[in-house]
Amino acid sequence: MKSRRAEQLWFWLFTGPALAGFVLFSLWPMLRSLWLSFCQYDVVSAPHFTGLRNYAYLIFSDPAFWPSIKVTLVFAAVQLPLSLAAALGVALLLNQPVRGRGFWRSVYFLPSILPQAASVAVFVYIFQSDGGLLNRVLALAGFTGPAWLGSPAWALPVVIMISLWGFGYPMVIFLGGLQNIPRELYEAAHIDGAGAWARFRHVTLPLLSPVLFFNVVMGVIGALKVFDVAYAFGAAQGLTPGGPARATLFYGLNLYQQAFTYFHMGLASAMAWLLFAVIMLITWLNFRLSRRWVHYGD
Amino acid sequence: MDQPRRSLNLLVVVLLVLGAAVMLLPLAWMVLTSLKTQPEILQSPGPWLPASPQWANYRTVWEGFAFYRFFLNSAFVAAMVIGGTLLTCCPAAYAFAYYDVRHKELLFGALLATLMLPAQVTVIPLFNAYAALHWVNTYLPLVLPAWFGGNIFGIFLLRQFFRTIPRSFIEAARLDGASEWTILWQLVVPMSRPAVLTVLVFTFLWSWNDLFNPLIYLHNESTYTLPMGLLYFIARAEQLAGGGTGQVPWHLVMTLATVMVLPVIVLFAIVQRRFVEGAAASGVKG
Questions:
Q1: Taking CB atoms and an 8 Å cutoff, what residues of chain A touch B236?
Q2: Of the candidates A117, A154, A126, A102, the residue with the CA atom closest to the CA atom of residue A233
Q3: Average pLDDT, consecutive stretches of 10 residues, N- to C-terminus, chain A (298 residues)
Q4: How big is the A-B interface in CB pairs under 8 Å?
Q5: Does the residue B17 lie in any domain?
Q6: How far apart are the first and last CA of chain B?
Q7: Which residues of B249-260 are buried (b: 16+ CB within 10 A; e: fewer)?
């Protein structure tokens, strides 16, 4: 390039749209949302500053706030361990020297990138109590399947089962971690007489812990933001999303309804900032804690 | 040593095949159901396989329920989003990869930090702004961010890849008198074709699969994209196609789902290796 000034010019020209986008679509709305979270705002009239009222209302009086947190936490506590176990299991299989590894990896990854509206519709059909694929397969095995849909007790378990279909992202991250473990370590353990389980327990697991930790953190953040599955699950049954009886009212869905069904935009902004605060806290803990109890193999 | 190795390998393959069958079963059931007739759907228990495949179902949903409208809407939005991403993310990634400007890392860090920002935080002010501009019920809210480098993850991935191109190539082109714009589009981007393609496929998926944003910005059936069109179809199915049966015509719903899923599978089949590696390297969850 001719000069430093030309370089400066090209830099701002090339990054200009992205930097403008940063201000317009991230920074400004973020600050505006923080301000709205301290306001009463129903779109029709101008925002009206009410201090911490929204936050206090959410924590002490709102009938949907804590139930939606409970749904989200139960989902995270059940779905995340199961999907990580599946992801790790398949990653361990794919780490073996089998033929067509790339093909298998793609097959297991595929469900994770399908449009959730479509996959939920397919599963709602599969879970039909009468004539649904699942109950028919159960009947072949001699079991009578329950009425999965329309029951508040089964709704969240069904959403969890649907979400277990896609574990592609943690799977490929596990696989990357497994492939970074030096072969010599396994050979050394083998020579020392370690069996398969001992090798997994004392070589694989410690060296995989940073990856496991990363997957847990991403999984928790993902659970906090669940929206598509929950919304589509209600809509595909002709229910108000979140139903039946708030059994699938995830935090993200509750927030959406506060903002865009009831137009409690100030309240919804407060919910969004609580979510953002928790995400930042988890990310910060991730940096702090991972140094302490994750084995980085040094 | 050889014998146990062999039987272990066999066990691994068997487990992989069984697992893959479970993973693909919902898709197979979707396609099979899409080829059945209404009576086959309503029977209990209905047949496992359609007596004769009803390819006409595809024509029925395509024309009869104006599903082509939703398909074209989705395709239009995806094309506009891909265009914007290509035109604004490539230059940004190039500048962050090669230029030596003060505070460059700080600016890049600020961009990357927005990956942590949940859409729930920004959506309310953005919705209000779009409403004030009378842009609700248009595609602008879905498309515009892409024309302002909205795919930060894409910029990150491209920058990583661009950096592997030797600087000497770029210096040589500069000595030949090529402008920076020319170097970017005729040297750097063609040399990074796999990475660019990967980013564009990620972009396509986000746009094609997106339910959250269309739900907020599109309130008019004729503007719906596929995910909304599908849910809308199910909700109105009894009126539209039930024929007084009071039943959701699941064979047609599965036809729609197949039409929606098919482009994703085809694209994924083309770029799968790169794509999966991109997902693994970044560790970013979609």
A1: none
A2: A117
A3: 81 96 96 96 90 95 94 96 96 89 91 95 91 89 88 94 93 89 85 85 87 90 93 89 89 96 96 96 83 57
A4: 268
A5: no
A6: 43
A7: bbbbbbbbbbbb
β-pair type (A39-40, A48-49): antiparallel
Interface of B with A in 55-74 (CB under 8 A): none
* B180 CA: distance to closest CA in chain A (Å): 8
ipTM: 0.90
Is the residue at B31 inside a domain? no
**By residue range, what is the domain housing residue B179?**
62-282
Q: Which residue of A has its CA nearest to B114?
A: A26
CB contact under 8 A, A122 and B46: no
- Please check whether residue B5 lies inside any domain of the structure: no
Q: Give the count of domains, chain B.
A: 1
Q: Would residue B8 count as lying in a domain? A: no
Mutate to test the interface with A, among B231, B236, B248 (most CBs of A within 10 A): B231
Within 39-58 of A, beta carbons closer than 8 Å to B belong to 43
- Whether residue A38 lies within 8 A of chain B, CB to CB, comes out as no
For residues B28 and B116, what is the distance between their CA atoms, to the nearest angstrom?
36
Sort out which chain A residues have CB atoms less than 8 A from B88's CB and list them.
17-18, 21
CATH number of the domain located at residue range(s) A64-293 in this protein: 1.10.3720.10
Q: Where are the domains of chain A?
A: 64-293
Longest dimension (CA), chain A: 79
Nearest CA in chain A to B125: A29
Q: What is the CATH number of the domain that holds B97?
A: 1.10.3720.10
